[in-house]
Design a protein that fits this description.
The protein is an alpha/beta fold. Helix content is 27%, strand content 24%.
């Protein structure tokens, strides 16, 4: 069986719509890739969760990724139950039966107790479903379990007994309400199953399926959850922690080991379903644990920057491809009101709740009537009243009559065409005008701009003021966005002093950190000033430990080579997570890449010119990917050269440049120590890997600094 690229875990809830603020006992989802939990998503309703999951699966399938989606409620009932309800042992017959009957509104109101009552009436004696909010309503459902004899079907499935799950799928009320979770979750599974052609384990063969649904139970990793909660802050939400650790554990399973779990099911599971991981609790807890050092990190953690065997010098395009293929989003997700969403990255596609315009309306002030008009004069009687924006006409305009309409007004019944008021004469009782006039003139159709259900903004988009207008017009009041990427900047070296401090012999002012912190802010990320580290290995180790807790990605400058005082490289090698990429470019040849406690580290050259070039060319697109905005290629322009240059083959070169009078001029010196050239320039000229001889007027590739911004 091939490995799953993505794991999605779902903590389902049968409760009513939860508050806007993230809370427990709601719907939480976890996403993990390559053994790393990437994000946890909070959904305020089952409808919101279904839309999110469907959109997520669409994106994963389009990207060709294989997905294991695990849900924390039973997929089936004890043997014999499905036959009593549907006449068939096929669990999908029951899924279909239930989907056809369950009603679930956006505010959480549903008919699950009515449907449970209907099923109880098919059994002799009280039950099997029990538990309800009060003793008087739904008389076919016992208030308590006392008195129910589980003779026709067992109270619990074999899967529940094997996993030592305390709850019963027939308990509808009083925590834990697994019975209600099934009734509200299975219809959603059935729709997702059809929509995405998912294979459901253990009912179907899953070896070659791109999308697989499986049942899980978070109780299997309770020791790992308790350990994580013991060190978490007071505001941590247990459900969120469960989904993070569970997705992490499943994603870390080697393909062969997971295949063994999927194969280890008894015969009755074909009807009753089974809980994935039953009997493998110790292994899952070990894989879920957060403690560093307990587990060997998966290959895409510490080794994600490893170069292919035999590679020494790395061409720029190859290096960029490696970064793009091996990195992914690392930030969490939160739901914000529109007023707070500007500049944030959409975590999921925004879907229109309402069409725009919601109704056919008029585009001008004038008079409305039905049908087009032929060439020549026309006189139409006026209906008393008018239609205005927000004040619709309550009635129908008879054929052959007209009505006064104002811009933005919903078209009254009997109106499909509007004539400009400037083209009309009126005495208040009738209008006169000349044709021809085409049917539908000066009107807008309902949904002409956007239809309800359309994807209006894709996941990964950085939200602009214009986007806020669009989502507002289509009925959205909040958006799921990624938390801002936190980028730590650390300078290293005893020779560095802060600007304004006295500088002794051999000391220089730290130019990199102010430059990089400002650049990070300009790119739309959150800069985290990590200060400067001395040339002391243990002190630097402590600095990196603190940085990993504060930042999602770390940029360092200096100490990235292999000298005696290059402690950054040494520490990353010691952690088993160091790769020195010798990039075939000028300036900025060495680039140290690694992981420190799960946080990516970009070890930039100490030279400010090389540090800026490496940040823009390599770290900038990588950070966009980690922020959830996708891999962004800067816009370049072909512009005539106002300079001459002969270039040798073998390395790509970036020249500090600016545009004047329609041509590109470059800085007078290519020396990487000339920091003034960075300030003088307005962008970079990119010269390809091969040999080149540039003459005045030849087109060159110019990338403005502004093209690197989000």
């Amino acid at each position: 069986m091939t490995r799953f690229d993505t794991v999605l875990t779902v903590d389902w809830s049968a409760a009513k719509r939860r508050p806007r603020r993230q809370s427990k006992d709601a719907i939480w989802l976890g996403v993990a890739r390559g053994g790393t939990a990437e994000r946890q998503i909070y959904c305020r309703s089952r409808q919101e969760a279904e839309v999110w999951i469907s959109s997520f699966l669409d994106a994963e399938q389009a990207a060709g990724r294989r997905v294991l989606a695990a849900f924390d409620f039973p997929f089936g009932y004890p043997r014999g139950f499905a036959r009593r309800i549907t006449g068939s042992d096929d669990p999908f017959a029951f899924w279909t039966w239930l989907e056809e009957r369950i009603e679930d509104s956006e505010d959480g109101t549903n008919n699950r107790f009515e449907i449970a009552s209907e099923m109880n009436r098919l059994f002799t004696g009280p039950g099997p479903f029990w538990g309800k909010p009060d003793e008087k309503t739904w008389p076919d459902i016992p208030y308590r379990k006392a008195g129910i004899i589980y003779k026709d079907v067992a109270e619990r499935r074999n899967a529940d007994l094997a996993a030592k799950a305390a709850s019963s799928c027939f308990q509808l009320f009083f925590n834990p309400t697994v019975g209600s979770q099934i009734l509200m979750g299975v219809p959603v599974l059935q729709r997702l199953r059809r929509r995405h052609r998912a294979a459901v384990w253990p009912f179907e063969k899953v070896e070659t399926a791109q999308t697989v649904f499986a049942e899980i139970w978070p109780g299997l990793i309770e020791p790992a959850v308790k350990a994580a909660m013991a060190v978490a802050g007071r505001d941590e939400i247990r459900d969120r922690v469960q989904m993070r650790l569970l997705s992490q554990a499943l994603s870390r399973l080697p393909a062969g080991e997971l295949a063994g779990m999927l194969a280890a099911v008894p015969e009755e599971a074909q009807e009753e379903a089974w809980i994935l991981g039953t009997g493998y609790e110790d292994r899952l807890n070990a894989l879920a644990a957060d403690e560093p050092g307990r587990l060997t990190p998966p290959p895409l953690s510490n080794d994600c920057f490893a170069l292919p065997a035999g590679v020494d010098w790395t061409p720029v395009d190859d290096a960029l491809t490696l970064l793009r293929d091996r990195l992914g989003p690392v930030t969490g997700v939160e739901t914000l009101p529109l007023a707070d969403a500007l500049g944030r990255v959409l975590a999921e596609s925004a879907v229109a709740k309402r069409s725009n315009p919601p109704l056919p309306n008029t585009a001008v002030d004038g008079y409305g009537f039905a049908g087009g008009k032929s060439e020549g004069p026309h006189v139409l009687p006026l209906v008393q009243g008018r239609a205005a924006a927000g004040v619709p006409f309550d009635g129908t305009v008879p054929a052959g009559s007209a009505i006064r309409v104002l811009t933005g007004a919903a078209l009254p019944d009997g109106v499909d065409t509007v004539i400009l008021e400037e083209d009309v004469n009126t005495d208040g009782a009738q209008i006169a005008f000349n044709g021809p006039l085409k049917q539908g003139t000066n009107t807008r159709k309902a949904g002409e701009d956007v239809c309800a259900g359309d994807v209006i903004l894709p996941a990964g988009r950085v939200i602009s003021p214009a986007d806020l207008a669009l989502v507002s017009a289509t009925g959205l009041a909040e958006l799921a966005v990624r938390l801002p990427l936190r980028v730590g900047v650390l300078s290293t070296g005893d020779e560095l002093v802060e600007a304004g401090e006295p500088a002794g012999n051999g000391q220089i002012f730290d130019a990199n950190r102010p430059m990089l912190l400002a650049l990070i802010r300009q790119l739309g990320f959150v800069p985290v000033d990590l200060g400067k580290a001395a040339d002391d290995r243990e002190a630097l180790r402590a600095d990196l430990d603190g940085a990993a807790k504060q930042a999602d990605v770390i940029l360092t400058s200096g100490g990235a080579s292999a000298g005696d005082e290059d402690h950054m490289s040494a520490l990353l090698r010691e952690a088993g997570a160091m790769q020195e990429w010798r990039i075939a470019l000028k300036p900025g040849r060495p680039l140290a890449l690694g992981m420190w406690q799960g946080t990516p580290v970009f070890g930039l050259p100490g030279n400010p010119v090389a540090a800026l070039v490496c940040t823009l060319i390599f770290a900038r697109p990588a950070m966009g990917l980690m922020a959830g905005a996708g891999w962004q290629v800067p816009q370049a322009f072909e512009i005539p050269a106002a300079f001459e240059k002969r270039k040798k083959p073998g390395r790509r070169e970036y020249l500090r440049a600016r545009m004047r009078n329609g041509s590109i001029e470059v800085f007078k010196s290519e020396g990487s120590g000339r920091i003034s050239g960075l300030s003088w320039a307005e962008g970079l000229v990119e010269l390809g890997d091969g040999a080149a001889e540039i003459k005045l007027g030849d087109p060159v590739r110019f990338i403005p600094y502004s093209s690197f911004a989000m």
